[in-house]
Amino acid sequence: MRVTGSDRTRKPRVAVVFGGRSSEHAISCVTAGSVLAAIDRETYDVVPIGIARDGRWVLESGDVSRLRIESAAQLPSVDAERAPVALARIAAGTELVVSEPSRPPETLGEVDVVFPVLHGPWGEDGTIQGLLEMSGVRYVGAGVLASAVSMDKAYMKVVLAAAGLPVMPSITVTTRDWDADEAGVRRQVDELGYPLFVKPARGGSSIGISKVRDASQLAAALEEALRHDPKVLVEVSAEGAREVECGVLQALDGTPETSLPAEIRITGDHEFYDFEAKYLPEEATALDIPAHLPDELSQRLRDLSARAFEAVGCEGLARVDFFVMPDGSLVVNEINTMPGFTPLSMYPQMWAATGVDYPTLVDRLIRLALQRDTGLR
Predict the structure, then answer these.
(1) Which of 32, 126, 173, 247 could cross-link 144 (Cys pair, CB 3.0–4.6 Å)?
(2) Max Cα-Cα span within the chain
(3) What does pTM read for this prediction?
(4) Domain extents for the chain?
(5) Do 229 and 208 contact (CB within 8 A), yes or no?
(6) CATH number assigned to the domain covering 150-166+240-370
(7) CA-CA distance, 335 to 42, in Å (whole number)?
(8) Pairing mode of beta strands 196-200, 210-212
(9) Which residues of 169-179 are buried (b: 16+ CB within 10 A; e: fewer)?
(10) What is the SS3 assignment for 41?
(11) pLDDT tens figures, 61-86
(12) pLDDT tens per residue, range 194-203
């Protein structure tokens, strides 16, 4: 695969953008390490772009060894002191320009596609997708609207429910709600019933989530979630449910294809699938790929995954998370438009079990992005 640049025929240039301002900065770095290691350098030119925690864009080293989680106290981070980099729109396309003090700006050449492996706000929520649309740069994954809707769990539920998909009962609580009318919030929560989960509405990686068993634990859980997001989802706990996930990947013709479902079983001391259970290698979780489900239920789950993908207008990829209730019914928990690509992540593992290995998965996503124009589509 070649593209015609302004001066010569060359390999497509892929900018892998990672880090970001959200609380999931470290997870984005880990995902980037896996993606950078998997991209075929014989087919693509690759440029690693880090977004520091303060929002600065820098030209990163691409050293994947420093993009790993060593422990909960030693998480990877973008080096904010590296050379600043920016996208610059020119007549022939969009270039990456490096600007260092006391040196004239240096162009790294045109960018053909951005692979944004950003998790959480300021990246997975439609913000960088809007920037790339305005810059005229193709990119991997969902567009502005699908990214924004899927990132905001409250609006995601509204869209999924309107499409006839089952979701858990919940209410939304903002910082203003809690400060102005604590008694009113408590009444609404009491109507939902306990136990329940309190989670940042626009967060991920299980950061800021608490399980609340009774009213005495509500205030602490809300305050913890509100530290991460001024908008919080309070949701009925799916007691006795199994957590099953399914990957969705577009074919080159745009048709959503689904992976074999996988089940997460927590075998350690964790009551739910929290940050440590997800990302720290020493933590005890078991993955069943494929999930042990009756064939009819497995197929129904895959069908609902494709419906959820299309209901929010996703493109490229998504992971759809379900609760399989004790009576065999299915409830959509959430849809993730940029699921993790860490070595422990479910999405790549599900596709590997379905016959699409990691390098092929990465290549297909880049090819999908290269054939898709920016703008209305």
Answers:
(1) 126
(2) 68
(3) 0.89
(4) 3-139, 150-166+240-370, 170-236
(5) yes
(6) 3.30.470.20
(7) 33
(8) antiparallel
(9) ebbbbeeebbe
(10) coil
(11) 988 888 887 666 678 999 999 999 99
(12) 999 999 998 7
